[in-house]
Amino acid sequence: MYTGGNIVVAAAGNIAHDRFVSLLERFERNSAAARRSAPRVRRPLTQAPPPGLRFERKETEQYHLCLGAPGISRSDPRRFAASLLDSILGGSASSRLFQEIREKRGMAYSVYSFASQYTDTGLVGIYVGTREENLATCVEICAEQIAEIAAGTFRKGELERAKESMKGRIMLSMESTSNRMSRLGKSLITDTELLSFERIIAEVDAVEPDAVAELAGVLLASDRLSAACVGPNEDRFRAAIGNGVTRKAA
Predict the structure, then answer these.
(1) Through-space distance between the first and last CA atoms of the chain, rounded to whole angstroms
(2) Helix 197-206 crosses helix 158-173 at what angle (to 10 degrees)?
């Protein structure tokens, strides 16, 4: 996989573009491996894998549960709505899952949602680490919050706060030279348009509540979710999942 056709080189910081290109060209002329490089060999994802359950028995104090499903690609126009969905659901300390499971009920120290986007697919998911007696309730709360968002039931100012938080994080991230480098490389390797900051801010501001609700209903539907868990008792895990988010998948 590590051949010339699969490699993207990105740089940011105190470097001149022409000098950088000349260094790469010199390497290419002198490298037999570069001369033998072939085009990209990774085939695109044509079909998402079916949902399933995985359990690893271990004598842990807590159950470590992850719910996940295929997401959307890095070039999908809905990616801004997907990022806001993640922020509202569990992507920050003010998110629903953090507030409902940790702050209000004290059922978990760590609970969050996450999302990744690639060339032709993506990933969305939820993680929670909790004690055995709280496992089923945590799953039920996840299901309830997903259903509320999918139904378009947003709290006052919730989407606006998520937008402001997202825009602030984007601008702060650009203070990092390594983040700027990664942004350039990811744009090339996923064949995604490199948007200006002004365009990104405009895209975030343009997201409507219906778009976030629709994504919640599509990406986090119970029959799309897989579940993986590490803990002492598989029966307790399956019972919790059967009563909550992934009932159809189980």
Answers:
(1) 35
(2) 170
Half-sphere exposure of 180 (CA within 13 A, CB side): 12
Measured on CA atoms in the order 117, 152, 161, 226, is the torsion positive or negative? negative
Residue 76 CA to residue 120 CA, distance in Å, equals 9
3-state secondary structure of 35: helix
What CATH topology corresponds to 53-242? Cytochrome Bc1 Complex; Chain A, domain 1 (3.30.830)
Q: Where are the alpha helices (DSSP H) in 110-219?
A: 135-150, 158-173, 177-189, 197-206, 209-219
The residues with which 231 forms a beta bridge, in sequence order, are 57
73 three-state secondary structure: coil
C-beta atoms surrounding 134 within 10 Å:
19
CB 245 within 8 A of CB 68: no
Boundaries of every domain in the chain:
4-35, 53-242
Return per-residue pLDDT of the chain as tens, 250 residues: 677 667 889 999 999 999 999 988 887 776 655 555 566 666 666 677 789 999 999 999 999 999 999 999 999 999 999 999 999 999 999 999 999 999 999 999 999 999 999 888 899 999 999 999 999 999 999 999 999 999 999 999 999 999 999 999 999 999 999 999 999 998 988 888 999 999 999 999 999 999 999 999 999 999 999 999 999 999 999 999 985 555 443 3
Looking at the DSSP bridge assignments, the partners of residue 115 are: 124
* Global pTM exceeds 0.70: yes
Run of H or E including 44: none
In angstroms, rounded to a whole number, what is the distance separating the alpha carbons of residues 205 and 245? 30
